Amino acid sequence: MNFSNKTLRTILRAIHLIIGGMVIANIYTPLGAVEWFESLVKIALPILTLTGISMWQMPFFTKIIKRQPAPTQI
User: Is 59 in a helix, a strand, or coil?
Assistant: First the structure.
């Protein structure tokens, strides 16, 4: 599946904001006392980290992905 850079960034941003909202709800609302919600947030924290890093380093990742190997001469 090929996404444009804008679409990919929009998807990552939406995921990042939704999970960030869950973390804020866990900290500042009574939902933090609910065991299943707390477990869900603990699972979602690595996803939050990965989406943040991938949005931050997107130019670096696309440069690595688009890099073509040097042609070999026989």
Answer: helix
- 60, containing H or E segment: helix 58-66
Question: pTM of the predicted model, to two decimals?
Answer: 0.76
Domain layout of the chain by residue ranges: 5-64
Provide the CA 37 distance to its chain's centre, in angstroms.
Answer: 20
Q: What is 9-51 written as a DSSP string?
A: HHHHHHHHHHHHHHHHHHHHSGGGG-HHHHHHHHHHHHHHHHH
pLDDT in tens, 18-52: 999 999 999 999 988 899 999 999 999 999 999 99
- In one letter, which amino acid is 42? K
